[in-house]
Design goal:
Elements: E1 2-8, E2 15-20, E3 26-31, E4 39-44, E5 47-55, E6 61-67, E7 70-77, E8 82-89, E9 97-105, E10 111-118, E11 125-131, E12 139-144, E13 153-155, E14 161-164, E15 169-172, E16 180-183, E17 192-197, E18 203-207, E19 211-215, E20 222-227, H1 229-235, E21 237-243, E22 251-257, E23 267-273
Antiparallel strand pairs: 1-2, 2-3, 3-4, 5-6, 6-7, 7-8, 9-10, 10-11, 11-12, 13-14, 14-15, 15-16, 17-18, 18-19, 19-20, 21-22, 22-23
GO molecular function: hydrolase activity, acting on glycosyl bonds
Enzyme class: hydrolase
EC number: 3.2.1.-
Length: about 270
């Protein structure tokens, strides 16, 4: 059993975790006391991979999981006690399946979803959808012909939404009608794994070559502020997650250390990147 998604509820002490229990499928647990105890609020044996969980400001819980070739979006109301499947993806004609990449509920009431749609034309495609009616209907706001392995979607205080494509990090100020590229992946063109902003709004990008990029505030150029490439090659350590850690001058990155000795324990090491 392992945790695949974690999110906070509208209450400061409320936490939801979703995970995969092998043949038993997906589970969703809730804590009302900051993790001291947990209750099972929903489970689905058909969901064997890709669960993503998010909670809207009004307390509505959403999770998305892979059910066979398709992905089902489930909604929990009445404090997570009444559940229903409200949407099945892919919704584009001609698609034969999907994988979930991100699911976020924002304070303006919108629900943003990223999926990889399988079998659309000659290649798979990465797609971002937006809903303004609690997931009853979705509007496509971005599509690209890339095999999207990672996705992060964030909404800023001014209403702008940041998301990533294969090589880039981009921003929309009009709910996905148009997008502005903030980070274009040059010169290396490695896939973006995740991005984060520090407390002063500086953008950091983690690529799949174990490097963290930051933007020069004077000329807007990008430089490598932390390079884990050699350590990864020598010791099998991988940078897996980047997040704001409340440090004005940087962000926090989680490094996974996979022990190469059978039976040894893997480690997760937090790093502060300037």
């Amino acid at each position: 059993m392992f945790i695949l998604s974690k999110t906070s509820g509208p209450s400061a002490n409320e936490i939801y975790i979703g995970g995969n229990a092998g043949a038993a499928g997906f589970y969703l647990r809730k804590s009302n006391n900051s993790g001291s105890s947990w209750n099972l609020v929903d489970s689905n044996p058909a969901f064997l991979s890709d669960p993503h969980v998010t909670v809207s400001p009004d307390g509505t819980v959403y999770y998305m999981g892979k059910n066979g070739a398709n992905c089902n979006l489930r909604k929990g109301t009445a404090n997570g006690t009444i559940w229903s499947t409200i949407q099945t993806f892919p919704i584009k004609p001609g698609s034969i399946g999907c994988d979930t990449r991100a699911l976020e509920a924002f304070s303006d009431g919108s629900l943003w979803l990223s999926v990889r749609e399988l079998g659309v034309g000659p290649v798979n495609q990465g797609v971002i959808y937006r809903s303004t009616d609690g997931g009853a209907t979705f509007t496509e706001v971005f599509r690209e012909s890339q095999i999207l392995h990672h996705q992060t979607i964030k909404r800023l205080a001014n209403g702008d939404v940041l998301a990533q494509s294969y090589y880039t990090v981009m921003k929309t100020s009009d709910n996905g009608v148009s997008w502005q590229v903030l980070y274009d992946g040059t010169p290396t063109l490695n896939e973006v794994k995740e991005f984060a902003l520090d407390t002063v709004g500086r953008l950091y990008v983690l690529d799949d070559n174990n490097r963290v990029w930051a933007q020069n505030q004077f000329d807007q150029s990008w430089f490598v502020t932390y390079d884990y490439t050699l350590i990864n090659m020598l010791y099998g350590r991988e940078l897996t997650k980047i997040t704001d850690c409340g440090n004005n001058s940087g962000v926090c990155v989680l490094a996974k250390y996979e022990q190469r000795i059978v039976g040894a324990v893997n480690e997760m090491i937090p790093l502060v990147v300037p």
